[in-house]
Amino acid sequence: NAGVTQTPKFQVLKTGQSMTLQCAQDMNHNSMYWYRQDPGMGLRLIYYSASEGTTDKGEVPNGYNVSRLNKREFSLRLESAAPSQTSVYFCASSGSWGQGGNQPQHFGDGTRLSIL
Amino acid sequence: AQTVTQSQPEMSVQEAETVTLSCTYDTSENNYYLFWYKQPPSRQMILVIRQEAYKQQNATENRFSVNFQKAAKSFSLKISDSQLGDTAMYFCAFIRASNTGANSKLTFGKGITLSVRP
């Protein structure tokens, strides 16, 4: 079972460069999420998509954009990378409330992103 | 807004012993879910255990159990018979229950690093 797949696993960028982190899930989940994890800060929600066609800001959305391409895919874009965006990024997905309440979120393996 | 507090940044336990990780949360909601996630050095986020707020019975999963005190807004994780593979960072998390899909945000604590000593 693939679950949630993130690409790439590692990336180094220069300040000002752009890039897109890809995420795909094969569990037919309606909701998808992007988090960043920084030392001592836990996981903080960047953006989420409660269902296909909708996206909403989370706790730390500045400097990021997202696209819910279809039910399976949810991408995160950094338009002009900054050193403050150096972090580990996690994508997650969960089933909808119609599938029996708040389902636990399933996480990808993360992307370690360094901005120089 | 919900907050989740894990006040102990690090803990250590001897293999085969029992350890309890603390978590408190603050919310005005009555219906919600609480989770403990484990993050080993491999960086994966693994769901350990889940508790529904409307259930009085504490959740258990093999060696893992919780002590859920709704009035006190406390949700601690007990690991029995600790194993070396339990070494990881553990995160407590909260999500508001919703039937519509709105406000589906999972709020995490800052995590606690658990080391199991051989």
Q: Give the overall shape of chain A, derived from the CA principal axes.
A: globular
Class by alpha and beta content of chain A: mainly beta
Mean pLDDT of chain B: 91
Sequence stretches where pLDDT stays below 50 over 5 or more residues of chain B: none
SSE order of chain A in H/E notation? EEEEEEEEEEE
H/I helix tally of chain A: 0
First and last CA, distance of chain B: 41 Å
- Counting DSSP E segments of at least 2 residues, the number of strands of chain B comes to 12
Distinct helical segment count of chain B: 0
The computed structural class of chain B is mainly beta
Secondary structure: helix percent of chain A: under 10%
Average residue-wise pLDDT of chain A: 90
What Rg of chain A, in angstroms, do the CA atoms define?
A: 14 Å
What string, H for helix and E for strand, traces the elements of chain B in order? Answer: EEEEEEEEEEEE
Radius of gyration of chain B: 14 Å
Structure characterization notes:
The complex is a heterodimer of chains A (116) and B (118). Chain A is an all-beta fold and 116 residues long. Chain A is 0% helix and 50% strand. Chain A contains no helices and eleven strands. In chain A, strands 2, 4, 5, 6, 9, 10 and 11 form a seven-stranded mixed beta sheet that branches. Chain A has a four-stranded antiparallel beta sheet with strand order 1-3-8-7, with no helix packed on it. Chain A is globular. In chain B, the strands form three sheets. In chain B, strands 2, 5, 6, 10, 11 and 12 form a six-stranded mixed beta sheet that branches. Chain B starts with a strand and ends with a strand. The mean pLDDT of chain B is 91. Helix content of chain B is 0%, strand content 52%. Chain B is globular and about 45 Å long. Chain B has strands at residues 3-5, 10-14, 19-21, 24-26, 32-39, 46-52, 60-61, 64-69, 74-79, 88-96, 106-108, 112-117. With 118 residues, chain B is mostly beta strands. Chain B contains no helices and twelve strands. Chains A and B meet through strand 5, strand 9 and strand 10 of A and strand 6 of B.
